[in-house]
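Postdoc handover notes: sequence design on the structure in folder B. Input tokens:
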């Protein structure tokens, strides 16, 4: 993930200076990470002067490779199928290399190359350099029939003219990798760098090695492979072990030793297994994927009857979970728990299982597993407190804020100075205070959690997300800009630290906040950025929330088909994740109700509005009622401010005033935002809807006007205007409805705008300025404020990363905005964008 990120940034910077060609050779051998990188590059740089070329064989054909190729083709790539060289072409190529047409015997041997031009070239060169090729009667033919029959052997024979000491040195270098430094080679061979110079110069003169930014490199990977595989397997393994030892002594970081540790370790060498474990622990804070690879190798090499196997498993399971491999984490953990491990190992594995169950949505089961970890006889106070703190945090989300607060305080009592416990407990207590209405305490506690995380050096604290919790609390006190900034900072920090699993959730919450604020285009940009991340990281954990938010946005934009499609995709993502990613073999505790990894009531609410838009008001009311009940255990601002008013409106329209009044009382009694203007306005709006009281609804409008304009203000204006019309106060209704219409038009809420326009027509309202206010869908006037900001900075030559830093958004969000700008302006390069910005900015 970090390599992809930096690679995209580098290529973007280069492309800003001059056209760039990127070539991926032999794509069929690419691992999933490389394929993700190619897809990310094609998305990020599609509007820049960049040519992306790749070569591959038709097999091995893997699903992820097919997916990458399909995506490139959808983005406009051209696919050329190159056939093997035919016999005339092979002869022509051989003639170009040998300076003479091939004779009969050489032609027969060239058929071994099967039309592969590289094999043809290397074969002819090898024959020529070993003196087996002679030109007779104008044709090049072989005079020595004992020719190599495989390309690696051909390459080795080609290098056989080198001094023996050079060949031996190159074999050691081949173990180090295609690129290596002279210092590393000196450390492994226990010779000083000066002693190595003669042999290295010979290899450079022969064209086997070449300079590279990182040191020296084999000119072709086939050369390194030939040397590497010329070593017997036990020798290669021993060389890797020796390389790891020597480079460790030389102070090379564990991350750079990963490959040698991985390939050199064996069951007969317990010390190498301990090296793998130590290196995994060292790599974990910054390179979780490397840590998993090393720790998993240690686990594979540890025999089933080895007393250390359980300890290795306890280290591996949390790493697998952290990198999104939840099913493997669960399997490893349960396998060891079934064997009756030691206290420390049982606690660690139950903690890992608790986090796994939580991420999979099994909230009650997660709490049960974590509480079981805290009850393990002999568990340390540190382990007990950490387990209880995690259980408390999850307990908030099953609707037990009081129990969560009590459990968090219990954890603090056990380990008062533990930063992990203190940070997590503060987050939990903040949400519990928010649920009971103590919003001032909630903000203070959430800020305390952020402060603890900022100063902590405990790597466990880095896995928490205090900024996300702070953002949720700040929204309730109408500090929307501060909430967005907190979540954006949390996203940046998580990205920097490599905590990938929860990055898409930050984008999802940002999208949600922007959607309910009426910033529909910006919300979609966050959704697209989040979905891009889920693809690059390889997790579907937060896709449902992202898809559901996209459904809300497209509904307001008036595209009911797209809205319904997004909700179907959200539902399918939930089902796919539950069935494929998180198949739990033996869940613990009450698992009769599996929690969905996105707010269930949110999806039901959006789907209810889709039904209402389609005229199915009965189904809409039923689903909205179900959403309200789903939210009952733990209602935050979205529930009270949006679900409540919509349910009241549907109930009132159906003639059930009693139910509408009951929901309004719940909002008034339960909304924990008495100290905020938004809460006050929400209560007034609900009561106004129940009583059909224009005065109360206008009071709600007036209260909302004291805050920056959001979707809530526009919706309440719409409610107030409708109530005024029903009482015959048409003159008063027109300006209120007009205010709602202006907001909808500015933000592209076409469906809402159409509803208000339909309400205004019978009133005889025909305003030219209203027509002119409608946001266009293409051209300069269609750009949102965020898109304009991004366009101006891109025109100045800033990269997406620099734009993100300047605007305090993620690189992917900037990238998404820029893609929208190109589409709306119908351009395909930054040069065109710069010209357009310059023209627009210079026009009076």
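Designed sequence:
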């Amino acid at each position: 993930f970090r390599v992809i990120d930096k690679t995209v940034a580098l290529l973007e910077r280069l492309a800003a200076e001059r056209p760039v060609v990127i070539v991926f050779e032999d794509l069929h051998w690419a691992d999933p990470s490389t394929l993700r990188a190619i897809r990310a590059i094609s998305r990020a740089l599609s509007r820049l002067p960049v040519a992306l070329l790749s070569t591959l064989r038709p097999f091995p054909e893997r699903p992820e490779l097919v997916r990458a190729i399909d995506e490139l083709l959808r983005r406009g790539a051209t696919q050329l199928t190159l056939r093997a060289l035919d016999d005339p072409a092979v002869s022509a190529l051989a003639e170009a290399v040998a300076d003479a047409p091939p004779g009969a015997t050489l032609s027969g041997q060239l058929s071994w190359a099967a039309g592969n031009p590289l094999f043809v070239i290397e074969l002819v060169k090898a024959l020529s350099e070993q003196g087996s090729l002679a030109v007779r009667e104008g044709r090049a033919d072989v005079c020595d029939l004992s020719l190599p029959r495989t390309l690696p052997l051909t390459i080795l024979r080609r290098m056989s003219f080198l001094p023996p000491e050079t060949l031996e040195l190159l074999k050691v270098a081949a173990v180090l990798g295609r690129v290596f430094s002279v210092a590393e080679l000196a450390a492994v061979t226990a010779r000083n760098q000066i002693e190595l110079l003669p042999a290295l110069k010979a290899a450079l003169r022969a064209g086997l090695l070449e300079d590279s930014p990182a040191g020296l490199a084999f000119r072709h990977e086939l050369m390194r492979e030939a040397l590497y595989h010329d070593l017997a397997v036990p020798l290669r393994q021993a060389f890797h072990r020796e390389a790891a030892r020597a480079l460790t002594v030389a102070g090379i970081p564990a991350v750079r030793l990963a490959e040698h540790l991985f390939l050199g370790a064996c069951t007969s060498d317990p010390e190498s297994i301990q090296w793998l474990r130590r290196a995994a622990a060292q790599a974990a804070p910054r390179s979780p994927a490397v840590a998993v690879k090393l720790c998993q190798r240690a686990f594979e090499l540890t025999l089933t009857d080895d007393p250390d196997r359980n300890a290795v498993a306890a280290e591996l399971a949390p790493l697998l979970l952290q990198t999104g491999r939840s099913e493997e984490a669960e399997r490893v953990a349960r396998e060891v728990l079934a064997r009756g491990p030691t206290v420390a190992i049982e606690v660690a594995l139950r903690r890992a299982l608790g986090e796994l169950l939580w991420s999979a949505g099994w909230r009650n089961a997660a709490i049960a597993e974590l509480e079981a970890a805290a009850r393990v006889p002999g568990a340390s106070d540190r382990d007990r407190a950490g387990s209880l703190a995690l259980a408390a945090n999850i307990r908030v989300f099953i609707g037990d804020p009081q129990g969560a607060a009590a459990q968090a305080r219990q954890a603090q009592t056990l380990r008062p100075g533990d930063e992990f416990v203190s940070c997590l407990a503060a987050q939990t207590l903040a949400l519990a205070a928010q649920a009971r209405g103590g919003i001032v305490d909630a903000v203070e506690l959430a800020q305390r959690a952020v402060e603890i995380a900022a100063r902590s050096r405990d790597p466990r604290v880095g896995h928490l997300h205090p900024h996300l919790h702070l953002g949720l609390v700040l929204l309730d006190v109408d500090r929307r800009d501060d909430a967005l900034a907190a979540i954006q900072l949390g996203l940046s920090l998580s990205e920097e630290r490599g905590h990938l699993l929860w990055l898409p959730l930050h984008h999802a919450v940002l999208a949600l906040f922007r959607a309910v604020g009426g910033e529909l285009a910006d919300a979609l940009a966050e959704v697209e950025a989040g979905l891009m991340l889920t693809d690059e990281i390889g997790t579907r954990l937060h896709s449902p929330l992202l898809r559901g938010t996209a459904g809300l946005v497209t509904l307001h934009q008036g595209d009911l088909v797209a809205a319904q499609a997004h909700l179907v995709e959200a539902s399918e993502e939930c089902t796919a994740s539950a069935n494929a990613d998180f198949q739990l073999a033996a869940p613990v505790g009450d698992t009769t109700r599996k929690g969905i990894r996105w707010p269930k009531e949110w999806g039901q609410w959006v789907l209810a509005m889709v039904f209402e838009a389609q005229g199915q008001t009965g189904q809409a009311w039923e689903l909205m009622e179900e959403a309200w009940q789903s939210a009952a255990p733990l209602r935050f601002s979205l529930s009270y401010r949006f679900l409540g008013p919509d349910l009241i409106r549907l109930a009132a329209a159906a003639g059930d005033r009693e139910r509408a009044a009951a929901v309004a009382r719940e909002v008034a009694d339960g909304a924990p935002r008495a100290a905020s203007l938004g809460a006050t306005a929400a209560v007034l709006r609900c009561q106004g809807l129940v009583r059909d009281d224009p005065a109360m609804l206008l009071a709600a409008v007036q209260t909302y006007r004291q805050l920056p304009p959001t979707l809530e203000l526009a919706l309440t204006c719409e409610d107030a205007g409708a109530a005024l019309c029903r009482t015959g106060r048409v003159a008063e209704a027109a300006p209120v409805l007009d205010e709602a219409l202006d907001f909808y038009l500015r933000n592209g809420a076409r469906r809402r705008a159409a509803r208000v326009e339909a309400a205004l027509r019978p009133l005889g309202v025909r305003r030219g300025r209203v027509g002119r206010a409608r946001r266009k869908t293409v051209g300069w006037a269609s750009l949102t404020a965020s898109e304009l900001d991004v366009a101006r900075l891109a025109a100045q030559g800033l990269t997406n990363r620099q734009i993100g830093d300047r605007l305090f958004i993620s690189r992917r969000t900037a990238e998404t905005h820029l893609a929208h700008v190109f589409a709306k302006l119908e351009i395909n390069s930054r040069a065109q964008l710069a010209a357009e910005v310059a023209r627009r900015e210079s026009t009076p």
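Context for whoever picks this up: The chain has a mean pLDDT of 81. Don't rerun without checking with the PI first.
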